[in-house]
Amino acid sequence: MTKTYAVIGDPIDHSFSPALHNAAFLFTGLDCTYIAYRIPKGELEFGIEALKKIDIAGFNVTIPHKVDMMKFLDEMDNECKLVGATNTVTNNAGYLKGYNTDVEGFLDPIKKRKIDSKDSDVLLIGAGGAARAIIAGFSKEKVRKITITNRTRERADELIKFAQNLGLESDYLDLQSAGETANKYKFVVNATSVGLKGMGCPISTKNINRDSIIYDIVYVPVETPLIEQSKNQGATIIYGWEMLLAQAMKSFEIWTNRQAPYEAMKLTLLGRF
Ligand code: NAP
To answer: Domain ranges in the chain?
Structure first.
């Protein structure tokens, strides 16, 4: 019988996930299909019941439900517990287990490049949901210190506490000073939505140089202003689409117990940009 998977969120009509997963199912010859299901904020409980009724095999969770979805899970894996949010769920006859593949999905492009993160200093721009998964990921890699810069100080302070509870050193820097001192960090990671569709650059890039690793998790456009400017200054670049692809591959592997088809999924994703 055909198995159906989904992504839930709102808005959902521009999600890359259906194309990515349907390509993976087609390529691996699995009798599965994947749909986008818009569930507005406040309607999650009703939406989950509907998914159970159609015996959904599993689903991805995106904005605004990644945290609220935790209430409806029967079980959680370690990363999901650590971050306090889920982006991947399996459904076994109504028993829902949550995972968070953003954590390993974020780390994957770093590991692929064989970059050692241990004991390094990180400048993290942003303090939303994605930033939380990134801190959890870097804590697994035992970085030394994460400095957080964000438009809203209170949100940064919450994440500083979160990082410290995971055993990391962590402090705050305002956005202006972050631009002035960006060359002091091994990694500069943008986890804000600044850069999205021509929104500009989250910090000044004047001090970014050949020794900097710039990781922008924004993936539309592929070359954000931060990436473009940092590339011109010789920095190593990690693209947002790489994280997007890696987290999707990990969801596929959780659901199917099979290796995800990297090339097919990458071609599909890049073809959509
Ligand atoms: P979120 O929880 O809503 O957080 C948004 C972050 O962006 C906050 O730090 C917010 O600062 C900051 N921000 C938004 N507009 C800003 C502006 N005009 N100026 C300065 N800062 C601004 O969102 P999220 O889930 O963390 O996602 C953040 C971005 O990462 C999105 O663009 C998303 O598409 C991308 N993402 C990519 C992947 C991937 O696989 N590549 C995975 C997850 C997310 P305040 O706290 O001050 O509001």
So the answer is: 3-99+243-272, 103-238
Fold of the CATH domain 3-99+243-272: Rossmann fold (3.40.50)
Whether ligand 1 lies within 6 angstroms of the CB of 249 is answered as no
pLDDT tens string 2-42: 999 999 999 999 999 999 999 999 999 999 999 999 999 99
Closest-lying ligand 1 atom to the alpha carbon of residue 66: 25
Choose the catalytic residue: 3, 41, 52, 66.
66
Give the predicted TM-score (pTM) of the model: 0.96
Where does the chain show beta strands of DSSP type E?
A: 3-9, 32-38, 58-61, 75-76, 88-92, 95-99, 121-125, 145-149, 169-172, 187-190, 213-216, 236-238
pLDDT tens for 39-84 read 999 999 999 999 999 999 999 999 999 999 999 999 999 999 999 9
Residue spans of alpha helices (H) in 152-272: 153-165, 175-181, 225-232, 240-256, 262-272
Mean pLDDT for all residues in the chain: 96
What class does CATH assign to 103-238? Answer: alpha beta
Give the residue whose CA is nearest to atom 46 of ligand 1: 152
List C-alpha distances in Å: 18 to 4, 13, 227, 273.
11, 10, 27, 14
